[in-house]
Design a protein that fits this description.
Elements lengths: L2 H14 L5 H14 L3 H7 L5 H11 L22 H7 L1 E7 L2 E6 L5 H11 L2 E6 L2 H11 L3 E4 L12 H8 L5 E5 L3 H4 L8 E5 L3 H14 L6 E6 L17 H15 L5 E6 L4 H12 L3 E6 L11 H9 L3 E6 L8
Parallel strand pairs: 2-3, 4-5, 6-7, 6-9, 7-8, 9-10
Antiparallel strand pairs: 1-2, 5-10
Helix pairs in contact: 1-4, 2-3, 12-13
Length: 334
């Protein structure tokens, strides 16, 4: 099939889905010939459709599955010989490895280099699905380039981080995790199995913490304890009426549990919306018998390594191990 025929078929799909009109598709074809754009890019440039519309149509055209941002796996599967640099360069991310078949998500399924290079570097048969480029890049970035910092002394006497932790953390601007071993893990650091507690609040950082917790929970048979806690903005204030809906909080717990279920991780859920978040976490450590808290945190701007008051309180008061997970460099103040 010629290039024009390929373009027309994509245009026909968009017209059939009532996302544009035949006249606009013709305008896009004219523009594509003069600018070198693909017809989908031309349609987006004309403001006729959105990038996501084009990708869905392209997936339909090529008989490929389409995955939304939420359908991409978390965490990403680790594939030998698949470098983070390559994933970011070509905007691809691994979705699954089943036997000798590697499935990857891409926003450019017409690029033959992607399949050929991946097959050569991994030695696997490569299957392609389609997903938005920004979602792929975000997931690929989160799945790799993570520095894990763990030392005998994590905190100082003032409740901040030890100077060695500060020095390492300050020099790394990407995603990081800080481990503070406590309790039984100081005596038997290599003991198999964790009883993990992960607090969630619906924020992006709590989702990241949940992703890491799910990955760790897959390594043992203990259920993953998921507790909903309020954000620091809520101040743990009690609701004026007990009948006020908790639908949002319950939905967040349900979504996190569903993500864990995709990896066959059993969960136990608890809702502590009416308590200050640090107190809710400490209470749930006691009631669940957890020996590891995985907490997604924001990096706070400033001269010192700081992940906020909740992280500081949990790190200082918890009698069990704590794993703080941050996406990267602190956002700059406006």
């Amino acid at each position: 099939m010629g290039i024009t025929g390929l373009f027309r078929r994509l245009g026909e799909i968009l017209v059939r889905e009532r996302l544009t009109t035949p006249d606009v598709v013709e305008q896009a074809l004219v523009r594509a010939r003069s600018t070198g754009e693909r017809v989908g890019e031309a349609l987006v440039s004309l403001g006729a459709v959105k990038d996501d519309d084009v990708l869905r149509a392209l997936a339909q055209q090529q008989n490929l599955a389409y995955l939304t941002r939420d359908e991409l796996p978390a965490p990403l599967p680790i594939v030998k010989n698949l470098s983070p640099k390559y994933l970011r360069q070509y905007a691809v991310c691994p979705v699954s490895v089943e036997g000798s078949v590697l499935t990857v998500a891409t926003a450019d399924p017409l690029n033959p280099i992607i399949v050929d290079d991946l097959a050569q570097s991994t030695g696997l048969t490569v299957k392609v699905v389609v997903s938005p480029a920004d979602a792929i890049v975000e997931e690929a970035r989160k799945g790799f380039d993570l520095v894990v910092i763990g030392m005998d002394k994590v905190a100082n006497a003032n409740g901040g981080f030890d100077r060695k932790i500060e020095a390492i953390g300050a020099g790394f601007k990407g995603p990081m995790a800080i481990v503070a071993a406590k309790g039984p893990h100081l005596e038997q650091p290599a003991a198999a199995g964790f009883n993990i507690l992960v607090p969630v609040s619906g924020s992006g950082v709590s989702r990241r913490g949940a992703e890491v917790a799910v990955a760790l929970a897959r390594l043992n048979d203990n259920p993953l304890n998921i507790v909903y806690v309020s954000t620091t903005r809520d101040k743990g204030a009690r609701r004026p009426r007990a009948s006020l809906s908790l639908a949002r909080e319950e939905a967040i717990l349900k979504d996190t549990a569903a993500a864990a279920a995709r990896y066959d991780v059993e969960v136990r859920t608890m809702l502590r919306a009416n308590t200050a978040p640090e107190e809710a976490i400490l209470q749930e450590i006691n009631s669940s018998g957890a020996d590891l808290v995985v907490l997604g945190v924001d990096r706070i701007p400033g001269d010192k390594l700081n992940f906020g008051s909740v992280a500081q309180a949990v790190l200082g008061k918890s009698k069990v191990s704590v794993l703080l997970v941050a996406d990267g460099e602190a956002p700059q103040k406006a």
